[in-house]
Design goal:
By secondary structure, this protein is α/β, with parallel strands linked by helices. Helix content is 45%, strand content 16%. The strands form three sheets. Strands 8-7-9-10-6-11 form a six-stranded parallel β-sheet, with helices on both faces. A three-stranded antiparallel β-sheet has the order 1-3-2, covered by helices on one side. The protein has a two-stranded antiparallel ribbon with strand order 4-5. Helix 10 links the parallel strand 9 and strand 10. Helix 6 crosses helix 7, helix 7 packs across helix 8 and helix 10 crosses helix 11.
Amino acid sequence: MANGQRATSTTTRIVVPGAHSMVTLLGSSDELLRIIEASLHCDIHVRGNEITLSGPPDEVELATQLFEQLIKLLDTGQVLTADAVQRSLAMLRQQTEESPAEVLSMNIISSRGRTVRPKTLNQKRYVDAIDQHTITFGIGPAGTGKTYLAMAKAVQALQSKLVNRIILTRPAVEAGERLGFLPGTLSEKIDPYLRPLYDALHDMVDPDSIPRLMASGVIEVAPLGYMRGRSVNDSFVILDEAQNTSPEQMKMFLTRLGFGSKMVITGDVTQIDLPAGSHSGLRIVQSILDGMRDVHFCYLTSHDVVRHKLVGEIVDAYAKYDAEQSAQQQQSTRPAQQRRQSRGR
């Protein structure tokens, strides 16, 4: 090496508590161990219930923290997965105050053997914001859990009797198709637009009880237009696909807020289906309400996508494409502006 210096190296030994088998920590056929080895630049040797780490001090420290967090997750009764390992490591690299075990062990609701919990740091902060504020905006790309986590918090609030009902709504805006050409009654035409809300609801509430809850008004799923003229009290209200609201619709929705209610507004400003030239209520409301007490804006990114890994890469690819198109458009308009300015002199 330069100047005859030798690379510094350190060694750390971790003793895994006897309550956990090494298979639960390292995975079947060492599947999880191989993921850790591929992600870190240090040597990992396992013997019995001892793990020896050696290599650059910063990498050994990171590996030590990772194994400690994974053991804490096992202490909560969770089964480790490749996704949990990768997300834990990503959070540790961010060096945030919240620990991966704290984020990944946060339970919102459990239903039919499934537990809904945040999977990223931003998702946990989004869930915390819903608890702490009356109105919360969740803004981010597809697959970041905006609507799903809001739905889980709504069901949790209903089960805890913090609210008396749940209202789920979204604008019935066409994404390349015309409502008028769909068969059936108005209700049947609108139903496909509300289907994602029904799907999330079925994941969290006993499907057999949903018709009864809807018939009694405890759960209401309706197009945004049905909110006009109402005042909503003691309710948890979710507005989904808010990027497709007009500024007037957004104002109308927010002013429905009644006593004892909580609102969550979710949307993706990169997927606006409004007619060309129309303004999105979700874009405008950020500048209007930013900094207002008891109103919070949470922003999720491609790193918070919890669908297939390709979804995050697709989101990033489109963002790059949009940025390039915007830059090209600015370059093409600049000469024309310069010519107009020179003629005006």
